[in-house]
Amino acid sequence: MEETLFETEEPRSRAEIARVLGAAAAELAGDGPVTLKSDGQSVTVQPPERPTFEVEVEREVEDDTTETSIEFEIEWEEADDGTQPEADAEDVVDVTPRPPDSLARFEVFRDRADEHRWRLVHRNGNIIATSGEGYTTKANALKGARSVMRNAPGAEFVSK
Questions:
Q1: Could you tell me the sign of the dihedral formed by the alpha carbons of 130, 135, 137, 143, in that order?
Q2: What is the dihedral of CA 49, 98, 96, 55, to 10 degrees?
Q3: Cα Rg of the chain (Å, integer)
Q4: Which candidate, 122, 124, 120, 123, places its Cα nearest to that of 132?
Q5: By Cβ atoms counted within 10 A, which residue in 50, 87, 116, 124 is the most buried?
Q6: Partners of 117 in beta bridges
Q7: Which of 143, 146, 145 is CA-nearest to residue 131?
Q8: pLDDT tens by residue, the chain, 160 residues
């Protein structure tokens, strides 16, 4: 049985499409939930660490009309209760997604000492901020990055 949880189809500029895809990509890169919103409807899903990713380009010809499409599909299996089968505690972290119009993204990576670190990277590639320390687990590095997300918006500037 198939159930459609969210669907939208409307003409948009290439820039608008890029913003929607970019916001989804940023949320996917952050290991947290992915929220899709359009016209008063929204859905939040939690993709696993390694879902199946499919890209399909189709050309359909009917009479004198040719329609070309690009379809991106990300799929994964869920247990009957909607959870991920056999999820590791390290992979499940409570998050608040950042706004879709963000000009930066958080990246979590392993350093040469095999510790997890985070960095905030502007869309032009410049590193804006780093964790400054290594974490023993990816989950702790994610918690550190999410703490900055939550606490920095109202931070004040202080000269010393």
A1: negative
A2: -30
A3: 19
A4: 120
A5: 116
A6: 109
A7: 145
A8: 788 888 888 898 988 888 888 888 888 888 788 888 887 888 899 998 888 989 899 999 988 899 999 999 999 898 766 555 554 444 444 444 445 567 788 889 999 999 999 998 888 888 989 999 999 999 899 888 888 888 877 777 777 7
The runs of H, that is alpha helices, within 30-113 are none
The 3-state DSSP class for residue 36 equals: strand
Q: What share of the chain is helix, strand, coil (3-state, %, to 5)?
A: 20, 30, 50
Helix, coil or strand: residue 110: strand
What number of other Cβ atoms are within 10 A of residue 146's Cβ? 20
Can you tell me which residue has the tokens 């550190």? 144
Residue 148: name the closest of 105, 116, 86 by CA. Answer: 105
